[in-house]
Amino acid sequence: MSDEHARSMPVGALAAEAVGTAVLVVGGVGTAVLAGKTVGTVGIALAFGFILAALVYAIGPISGCHVNPAITLAMAIRRRITPVVALGYVVAQAVGALVGAAIVLVIASGRPGYSLSADGLGTNGYGSESTGGYGILPVAVAEIVLTAVLVLVVFAATDSIATPGGAGVAIGATLTVAHLIAIGIDSTSVNPARSFGPAVFAGGTALSQLWVFVVFPLVGGLVGALIHAGIVAGHRDRDEAVAQQA
């Protein structure tokens, strides 16, 4: 998820973000909707993690593979990308999420007996029996903390001192763990775009609660960026102190 390729916002980078987000939704949400009863929670978590890991290697060199407005916000806060580029990325991610959700819906609609209102579209939510009945406070804490951890790992795994080639594995594994923790809480967002696409088509409660899965992951992105900034600053101060003593 390097940001160096995103500073001038070429058309290819926007296309990569749109396509990448669509693929993430199809791979993750599609698994939940089309095969969730077969693969269970672990299978869904692995699907999200595997598809993100693959995308890091596939489109990382093109756009940085944000595919998540929380990551994009964090990059903008750290001045890795400009506000204009960030806005372009978020729009592309939203479009991609809509396309991905539409693809999942078209496939799911071909299953005999499928009902969008009854079977859903992998949407996020809180306070209902289907998502464990958790209230908004635990959902907010989960989304903030898990998104912050994801952002922290993204920055760390793509740092110049990180192990070369390991970013996809680290980031994919982190998303997998986030889903293992939060699927039973709110179906796991940690990504406003992932929540946006399915909610638009599902409507109703999913759409009215969408703000929760936009606001709190974005807050988590901010927290993760600030934590990493503090860690990097502390590391540099230590290195400078060691250099002065040498």
TrEMBL record:
Q: Give the record's keywords alphabetically.
A: Cell membrane, Membrane, Transmembrane, Transmembrane helix, Transport
Q: Where are the transmembrane segments?
A: 12-35, 41-60, 81-108, 136-157, 169-190, 210-233
Where does it live in the cell?
Answer: Cell membrane
**Phosphoprotein as UniProt keyword:** no
Q: How does it sit in the membrane?
A: Multi-pass membrane protein
> InterPro entries, from UniProt?
Aquaporin-like, Aquaporin_transptr, MIP, MIP_CS
Q: Does the keyword Ligase apply?
A: no
Question: Which PANTHER family does the record match to this protein?
Answer: AQUAPORIN TRANSPORTER, MIP17260P
Family recorded in the similarity comment: Belongs to the MIP/aquaporin (TC 1.A.8) family.
What is this protein called in UniProt? Aquaporin
Organism name: Williamsia deligens
